[in-house]
Amino acid sequence: MIQYYSTRDPHRAPLSFEDALLKGLAPDGGLYVPDRVPTVDSANWLSARSLPELAVSVLRHWLEPEIPLAELEAILHDALDFPCPLVRLGDDLFVLELFHGPTRSFKDFGARTMARLMQHFLRRRGERRVILVATSGDTGSAVADGFAGQDNIEVVLLYPLGKVSDVQERQLIVRRPGVRALAVRGSFDDCQRMVKEAFVDPELAHLPLSSANSINIGRLLPQALYYLWAAQQLAAEHGLSPQRLNFCVPSGNLGNLTGGVFAALMGQPVQRFLAAHNANHFFPDFLAGKAEAYGFHPTIATVSNAMDVGSPSNFERLLHLLGPERMRAWFWGTTVSDEATLERMRETHRAYGYLACPHTSVGLEAQARYRAETGDRTPLVTLACAHPAKFPEAVSSALGIPAPKDGALEALWQRETQVTTVEPSLQALRQVLLG
Questions:
Q1: Would you give the distance in Å from CA 68 to the centre of its chain?
Q2: Which of 103, 295, 333, 351 could form a disulfide with 284 if both were Cys (CB 3.0 to 4.6 A apart)?
Q3: Close Cβ partners of 27 (under 8 Å, ≥ 6 residues apart)
Q4: Domain positions in the chain
């Protein structure tokens, strides 16, 4: 059975997946990592006829015997009941559309799966949890939707006031059973800091706290699945070898990139990962040798707001798993301005008739730079993170046309809302949790 230990104390007794999932963050503030990554025979996922089937064939190597196979199948088929198409733009350039879940963001993969895994264990234990989640845009709505109404779980989500799109905010604050939304007068890094401080606060030690950010290992394992699914579709639908593939990952907190690393460590051949960042440039600077490890900077607000992370939590996990030399050899990074993001939205629409959200456009700009710089023509998949309907202002600014309509998003405006505004401090969060 795979066990998990903290990045900050590898000598402490390891935990089961169940315990690592329910704790979220290690007591010493570290992130949980596996004691080994299982090798998964490519025949297991290349022959899959659906993403849930692929998920079962892969995650059973991680989760058995903690979750019996029949129960794991039920969890994954329920959680991953939406499409994940690979769209060819041309010249061995693809986008993997991850925005067809209920909240129209790639975060639905991890949040829905994690909610069902947690509920499985909590029912068995007869326990409850309070999920703290910091969001820069899309995580919170995916967690709120995925966890809402679970008898054993309450969600408290924190988002930076005025720093998410109107549609994203509406997704966060619609009233849901068991969910409380906090608008923090600060940045995403303030929200993330408040969550981390709460986990080690002695005054909150009696609360059954857990996390649903990508600091939780339960969020990352489901995110590894769609990298494998992209390779399966590349072979099955486009006749290309899954043995030669690059991925471009629009990146903020580095959870999505860490999911890709887990897929590669399981045995998926990935020649290069492209880390596409907006003006929040720590990680590209680190890869280029311009920044020291943990040389973070304050968050910079951009049009691709869900990636506005100055202090990416999963850097610690990646550094522990790979080390700096391997990271710099395997990853290529760049930082993309708002102007370049909007121009890439225009160029993509003009060249391919494809409307990309700002986050996806950061990735498409990065892949264009990478190919121009390296001449590498390996088939390249850019992760399409969110539906463009979530960003009407950016679509209008870039293209001068209205954003496409989406029924699920339109319906939000007919629902009741509930939100509390708080200061960016542990004391403010403590008052909410103890009130």
A1: 26
A2: 333
A3: 6, 200
A4: 83-104+218-399
What's the fold here for domain 83-104+218-399? Rossmann fold (3.40.50)
The whole-angstrom separation of Cα 123 and Cα 426 is 30
Whether 242 contacts 230, CB under 8 Å: no
Q: Where are the beta strands (DSSP E) in 93-234?
A: 93-97, 129-134, 153-160, 179-184, 209-211
pLDDT tens for each residue of 115-162: 999 999 999 999 999 999 998 777 888 999 999 988 889 999 999 999
pLDDT score at 177: 94
Length of the chain: 435
Tens of pLDDT, residue by residue over 367-424, are 999 999 999 999 999 999 999 998 988 998 898 988 888 998 999 999 999 999 999 9
- Residue that is written with structure tokens 């968050």 in the block: 299
Q: With H, G, I as helix, E, B as strand and everything else as coil, classify residue 111.
A: helix
Query: How many CB atoms sit inside 10 A of residue 102's CB?
Result: 16
What is the pTM (predicted TM-score) of this model? 0.91
Catalytic amino acids?
107
